[in-house]
Design brief:
Helix content: 40-55%
Distance between the termini: 82 Å
Largest sheet: 5 strands, mixed
CATH topology of the largest domain: Nucleotidyltransferase, domain 5
Radius of gyration: 30 Å
CATH superfamily of the largest domain: Ribonuclease H-like superfamily/Ribonuclease H
Shape: elongated
CATH class of the largest domain: Alpha Beta
Number of strands: 5
Order of helices and strands: HHHHHHEEEHEHEHHHHH
Number of helices: 13
Number of domains: 3
Structural class: alpha/beta
Strand order of the largest sheet: 3-2-1-4-5
Strand content: 5-15%
CATH architecture of the largest domain: 2-Layer Sandwich
Amino acid sequence: MDLIKARLAWVELYAKTGDAGFVCRRCGISRPTLRKWWRRYQADGEAGLVERSRRPHRLAAQKVFADQEALILSLRRERRLGVKQLRNELIRQHDLHLALDTIHRTLIRHNKQVLKRPRRWRKGERRYNRPIPGDRIQMDVCKIRPGIYQYTAIDDCSRYKVLGVYKRATAANTLDFLERLIEEMPFPIQRIQTDRGREFFAAAVQRQLMDWAIKFRPIPPRSPHLNGKVERTHRADREEFWDMINPKDPQIEAKLADWQHHWNWNRPHTALKGMSPIDRVCELLDKTPLREAVDAAYDSSRERIRIADHRLDTAVASLK
């Protein structure tokens, strides 16, 4: 009621003086505001000074058809994907581009907006990113099925990753994957970070990294949070790729390569503010050093053959 009385005072003062500038200065309102309420007062009297609903008279056409809605709900029910994962899966598997708000409204309409998952325990909340691509590559091996191991290497800065599938996690397969990694990463690699897996600590693997002027930096035991990006991308691979295919498919390597290309070139990433990894790589292209500069900065005297046993490795390091 106070607002209605104030608006009535505005229009009455304007009707008395006829000076819009004076009324606006006196009442502390703008000319468009005075014009709006003056027109409504002239049309409906005091009833026109009541605030009206701002809801649009006509809603936009529905963006999701019945078959698309059924697809969203089936993906939600069968694979328990979040809204962002649903959007990515609709683009990759069905060439269907829908906004996050559109998908969310569909879930709300069917009372499926809440996705109950067990709360994951986190060791600390600090997130970090290296400043340039290639500064640190997180690398790990994930067992998908018996006889199927996925090697993963992901850049700490850009989230650009390289994948490989092997029958076993061995030093020979690690060497083979490293050669692919060097070839496929679009920037020079300065250091590789792994867990304490034995397949990474073979002398042949470490010497090869030294020959390539790449630092080897294993993390301490029981600290997977330090390799958090590669751990999280393993989960995305399981939910968005491995759950959709037969792991024994003879074309598994080609399909994995397609998924890797989609991840690097098309899939938007929240951590990159909606950009794809290749967009981030291109954004930092001027700051990324060339291979020659990385080789020149490499100090071979600071490198040594690391030991898988962390306590023994630490003891050996303290002797130097």
